[in-house]
Amino acid sequence: MKNLAILFLLALSICKGFAQIDPVLLRKPVTDTSRMLLNMDAVYNRPLLAAGKLPVSLGGYVEANYQYLNENGISEGHQFQMRRLTLFVASSISKRLKFLSEIEFEDGTKEINIEFASIDFELAPLLNFRGGVVMNPIGSFNQNHDGPKWEFVDRPISATQMLPATWSNVGFGVYGKKYSKDWVYGYELYLTNGFDESIISNGQNKTYLPAAKENPDRFEESFNGVPLLTAKFALRNNRIGEIGLSYMGGVYNKFQDDGLILDKKRNVNVYAIDFNTTLSKTKTFINGEWAWVSVDVPNTYTAQFGRAQQGGFLDIVQPVYSRSLFGFEKSVINAAIRLEHVDWNKGKFISTGDNIADHIYSVVSAISWRPTPQTVFRFNYRYNWQTDLLGNPPSRLAGFQFGFSTYF
Asked: Which positions carry the signal peptide feature in this UniProt record (predicted)?
């Protein structure tokens, strides 16, 4: 709670420094309060099509791209990728009962995942029940990850290689929102199945939370019987923007088996802060997220397994052309840049006292064309500096990416 209080005070100080904004939404949402959406609304803020009297609505999005990357003078050449195809199926069962599912096919059909499949029972604006496969609301990207919403081909490094992007589990919880003039605030609170020991016992040979996504058993049983707690509070003002504070934590190890004590309970804790705004005069969209990870790693593990991690990203998107183009009346061309940093092992070697240097910096520039708000063609240039555990000269990766993403 002390850490959350510090994050909240920090967030308020950040908000005061931003100019007034006029939020520009990606598309027309399905509710009347269209200018007061939070990241938590992203699950329903999607274009869905209902045909006739069918009881369900359908939708989805697709992503594909080309890339040519070079790392330290070595390249795999020209690569074409079908990143993902995602399908939405939604149904309004009754006035206060809704169902939505999100099924994703990655890399062709190399991976097939149920990312969301929940029933929402609306009791009151500030008290709603959600159960099924829920998206753990840590940070903002995990909730608001649809490809057509972003000007960049790759997802943020911090969201995919430090935090487990599109991290979802079976569980239950409550959520709610409240409006007051130019303000809206919302919360989410869930208990779900959680992490397992693969976060420190994996092929990466380091502390790596995304490894837990490889365990399909988390959708039918808990690894250790202790629920994972995920909580988020978000606040938006029409003239300032949105800020979110979130926490995710629980026991990740198998500490007992059939009553036999194997180890003490070892926790993983994640704190995150996210912010987004649109500057009213220039229509510049600013979106950022930063997260801190703490893992209770056994003393028998070497220093390469990080006990503390941190990282995040900052996106700045500037519209440079907004008028009809090739017959598309609402066409927009954007220039954008993404700044990224992840430190997978924030600490020092016990034997020498030197800093552990397992980190990466990245800069991605982008030019994107949106013929419609729901479709984006994007051209990116990426440059990464990645330093190994011992702080040797960084490995450098650079290259071009071109692709598209669209709702359908």
From this structure: 1-19
